[in-house]
Structure formats: structure tokens, C-alpha cells
Amino acid sequence: MAALEASSQASNPPAAVEGPYGPVRLKWHKLRTHLAEAPFKRSNLALGWQLGASLEIDILATADRRFAVLHDPTLGPSTTGRGRVSRLPIASMRGLFHRAADGTRDPDAPVLSLADLVAPLRSLQRSPSANLQLDLKLLEGHALPDSAVADAAAAVAGLGDAIVVGSHHLDDARRLVAAIPGARLGYDPMLAVSRRPALRNPERLLRHIERRRTGLNLAYLRFDTIVAAESQGFPLVKHLLDLGIETDAWTVNPGVGVSDAILHPLLEAKVRQITTDAPSEIFRLIGFSANAVP
Asked: Can you say whether the dihedral through the CA atoms of 266, 232, 169, 84 is positive or negative?
């Protein structure tokens, strides 16, 4: 298999890599293009939108039932702010910034509402393959209010065919998708797996997803879950494809343990997307692996 450049400019981070069964998208986790940078950078969103990348942001409801682009239930230490997101109005986050890996604030990564982050996309040329996943986060014991659903729908109005709503919380993700014409639906069952160990059996996990397949376009699975299923001789990803459900393998980053022994089974399993904070490095590793094949 040979690597596929996602852009004609070698300096741009890749949006896809060629696998044995066709292109595999490299999703920019938290909009990152390398591990050390701050999440949710505006410039990366604009770049990926124009390059045709799969992009991902996390959204959390604030005290005034607006969606903020945040991963954690508290502002610190990942941003320059402090406090629990669910107890703060969106206006109180103005002037805050996300931090890079070294702890420095990044002026290109302000803490923004969903509406403010995506607003510039309407004036940019979108590559047809570009899509934006809204990873819906819900705090334990917190319901998703109708007003927050309305806020998300208004924030991405006119962009629906590029939107994917993914979550551990499938019923709430369905509500968002229903409010966003053209949006697609993704389900991450790994929270259910952590609560029900029997679902670690890939056949049972398949049945769990199959029972929830109505309207489902994507399944988000931990990469080691996929590799384990393949090693047991159970083609979980292929069975999902037979149901019309593509698989995203998360989160694959360079480092100890990420080698051909991981990447090769993922590609052979026919994953359609790999979530990563380092798309250029994963692109390089897959290309190196391909070139090493006699």
C-alpha cells in the first residue's frame, strides 16, 4: 500500500492516507495537526475545511444552555480559566484561551461558543470532502436541554451536510441530528463497554451496535478494540460495513506501542477513518510501513 498526499502542498497536514482498500481519512482530533499544539485552533479549522479534512471539536453546554467548544468539564488546567463549565455562562469565558502542551496560552485558540468558532466557515470555500464532527459531551446526571439543541442547530445552520454528531450518548446525539438538516450520526459505544464488560466480546459489541443502527453512519471504536477483534478472527469492522456503518479508530498517536503491529491490522480491517492528534506523523508511519513491505 502507498501513502496518498491529501494536498498538493507538501507543507499542509494530510487529510487522508491510501490504505489497501482505498483512502482512509485522518481525522484531526480537537483540530490538532500535531501533539504539542493547543486544541481548537481557528487556523486549523479553516485550513482543514479548505483541504477536505475530517475535523473534530468537543462541545459542552454552559450554564445558560449555550454550547462552548471545550473537552473537559472544568476550564482548568487546559485553558487559562477556572471553574466548572456547567456553572458558567458563555459570556464569562470571553478572553480565555486554550493552552498548548507546554502550558502556554495560544492566541489562535480562544475559548469560543460553537456559533463563534464555526461562523467564519460560511465565507470560506469548503472542499467537498471536508466534514466537522461535533463530539457531544454530557456530564453525569445532566440532561441535554431543548434550548441547547436549538443553540447547536442555529450555530451550524446552512452547514448541515458537513456536520457529523458523535457521542457516547446516542439518544441525545439523535436529537441534535434531527435538528440539523443533512447532519450524519455517529455512536461511540466505548462508555457502554466500560460499564458492561461483556461487551468486550466483539460479537456482543456488534449486536449492541446493530440494535442501535437506525440512522447510524459511523461507529467510533478504540483502536485496540479493533485490533483485538481482528486478532480473535472476528472481522468487527467488516460486519459493521455490511450494516452500512463505517468505523473510526480512535485515538492513534505516535509513541510507544503505535507501530505496524497496530496500523496494519487497522487498515486491513477496513477502517474508513483514523482519529489522531498528529496526522502527518501517522501518515508517515503508514507510508514507512508500506515501503517496508517486500
From this structure: negative
Q: Residues 251, 29: contact at Cβ < 8 Å?
A: yes
Segment 83-99, tens digit of pLDDT: 999 999 999 999 999 99
Taking a C-beta distance cutoff of 8 angstroms, is the pair 73, 86 a contact?
Answer: yes
Identity of the residue numbered 233: G
User: What's the whole-model pTM score?
Assistant: 0.95
How many residues comprise the chain? 294
Burial of residue 162 (CB within 10 Å: 0-12, 13-18, 19+) is buried
Q: What whole-number distance in Å separates Cα of residue 257 and Cα of residue 263?
A: 10
Q: Please, what sign has the CA dihedral across residues 91, 84, 275, 176?
A: negative
Give every CB contact of residue 70 below 8 A, 6+ residues apart in sequence.
Answer: 58, 59, 60, 79, 85, 111, 137
pLDDT for residue 289 is more than 50: yes
- Distance in angstroms (rounded) separating the CA atoms of residues 56 and 58: 7
Which tens digit of pLDDT belongs to each residue from 55-69?
Answer: 999 999 999 999 999
CA distance 107 to 126: 24
DSSP 8-state symbol, 72: S
